[in-house]
What we know:
Strand order of the largest sheet: 3-2-1-4-5-6
Bound molecules: adenosine-5'-triphosphate
CATH superfamily: HUPs
Strand content: 15-25%
CATH topology: Rossmann fold
Largest sheet: 6 strands, parallel
Radius of gyration: 16 Å
Helix content: 25-40%
Number of strands: 6
Amino acid sequence: MRTGVMGGTFDPIHMGHLLLAETVRDECGLDCVLFVPASIPPHKTDDPVSDPAHRLAMTALAVEGSDGLCVSDCEVRRGGVSYTVDTLRALSDLSDTKGDEFHLILGMDNLLDLHAWRDPDALFRLAAVIVMDRPGVPEEKADPRFLSRIRRVRTPLIQISSTEIRARVKNGKSIQFWVHPAVERYILRNGLYR
Ligand code: ATP
């Protein structure tokens, strides 16, 4: 089984996440891409983040009925600050066969910060690292030590962020087609981001 692992805050999961994950799945011949919402994201400790239960529920709604996109609640269940290296270790321990392969999928913004992640070298031992383009994030700024060890996948440049979606909701703007319809309904029903 070739599994893509895409961690994040997913506050909320947006159409960019879905389209990019599907593109990488197809390009890299992965059986599935697992979205893993963080319990407490290590790099966003200053900003208020929605309750993990909401972020997990929205992620589950977004992938429901899709082919090859799924969600894991392992970081939310583990609680505390979520480190990707712990998640990859847990997934490898749980895997059924030695032949299982994990592919960690990161946006270019994440690659630029990777030196500040917990045990970045271990990430490369536990998974193949795939990096997707992100508008306005120049790869020249990435650490060459990391650049030489990643697989770069050319993905559509999508200028959508969860930050922008939260701002749109706060300002009473439409988020139709920015997020999956079920996620839009969930946000409105639960009064998130107002
Ligand atoms: P925020 O705006 O709250 O910082 P975000 O839109 O960056 O959120 P995350 O949940 O932090 O979303 O992202 C999860 C993963 O998806 C990260 O690896 C991030 O780099 C990647 N990602 C998110 N949006 C894009 C995008 N538009 N293009 C490329 N990669 C993206």
